[in-house]
Design a protein that fits this description.
single chain; 415 residues; alpha+beta; BirA Bifunctional Protein, domain 2; Rossmann fold; 2 domains; eight-stranded mixed sheet; 15 helices; 39% helix; binds adenosine-5'-triphosphate; binds magnesium ion
Length: 415
Amino acid sequence: MVSKLRPVRGTRDTWGEEARRATHVVDCFRSVCERYGFGEISTPIFEFSEVFRRTLGETSDVVSKEMYTFEDRGGEEITLRPENTAGIARAYVSEGMQQYGVVKLYAFGPMFRYERPQKGRYRQFHQLDVEIIGAAEPEADVELIGLAQTLLEDLGIAGRVHLELNSLGDSESRAAYRGALTKYFKTFQKVLSEDSRARLERNPLRILDSKDEGDRQLLEKAPHMSDYLNAASKAFLERVRAGLDEIGVAYKINDRLVRGLDYYTHTAFEFMTTDLGAKGTVIGGGRYDALIGQMGGPETPGTGWAAGIERLAMLIAELPALRRPIAMIPLGDAATLKASAIAYRLRGKGWYVITAFRGNLKKRLARAAKNKARYAVILGDNELAKGVVTLRDLDSEEQKEIKLAQLETELTAEP
Ligand code: ATP
Ligand code: MG
């Protein structure tokens, strides 16, 4: 006997309406990515731990406390992917993709983080992911934000989110800002949260992302990134802004916005919502020009974003209607056998057919109605003997007897 007959904390079974929502998000995403000329990539769900540790940053929450890391039977240190960018960057290098110039990729699938579960936050969750690798141009960032906006429009939720944009600058700007932040927070070292005190030494930018209330208050008077951007970083941001203005995507500059992972440079952005309670980021991304070099690959710029499928799915008000099926309703043993064959044939030719294996006529008709069936095909043993079936229009409630051989022609008129 299994002693814990339930999913592991932070994981969930997805089915019914919820599964349809998630699938709808992925279908829309795929369609948008194809329109933007992106190709699909699927990378393994686990990688050598170093792939994440070296790139996401030792001080990031993800690496310091959220990774599912284990030693496999061969003694390799393995981590279940907490995000997809590092794996895709690894694939870019191992698959020799630099030969293709600019590479535009999309991916989706499960990610794993050991977090405190709550609404919209799970230990196994699912992300959509897009990356442009090999393009240092700000237009690549604009295209990716445009792609996100198109997706939100297609999902019918663009009105429920807003875009916040920041620049984390190039390495020179970041070093200058880092110095200023360190100086500022040093004076408050005693009151900083324990986590942030550690961040102060190793990565003070990370403090901007602190969720500690005390830290957040100190942040109000902290130096602003925008005052430390050098000319090149400023120009890059201006170009991204001009691109967004030109396509008509609205945004708000938030110069406190940092992303949870270390690899970002220049552009950082989040699409947020106030409709999901406290935790409102649905899409987050930015530029990562140092990531691939840091990994040991050729210096290659990159930019991308990830979206939480569960969070997008929750925001959708109404799913598109399902195609209406035909309900097969046999009554009697011989008819049941024949009905299976009719259903099989219809399905093979592209019709949507539902069957139930038991119940009287009334119950089966009720079930057909519940499934919004368009027609019911009713056949009893007598009808079978005559080679006919009763075709019932479930909208008009009219029914007629037709020859079995006539069934497909009659159904052709169906929407
Ligand atoms: P948060 O601030 O919510 O922890 P994050 O900065 O860690 O987010 P990213 O690493 O940027 O998140 O991931 C991109 C998106 O993936 C998030 O905006 C969110 O929609 C989704 N996401 C991240 N972590 C989880 C999780 N544990 N459960 C569900 N969705 C998640
Ligand atoms: Mg997080």
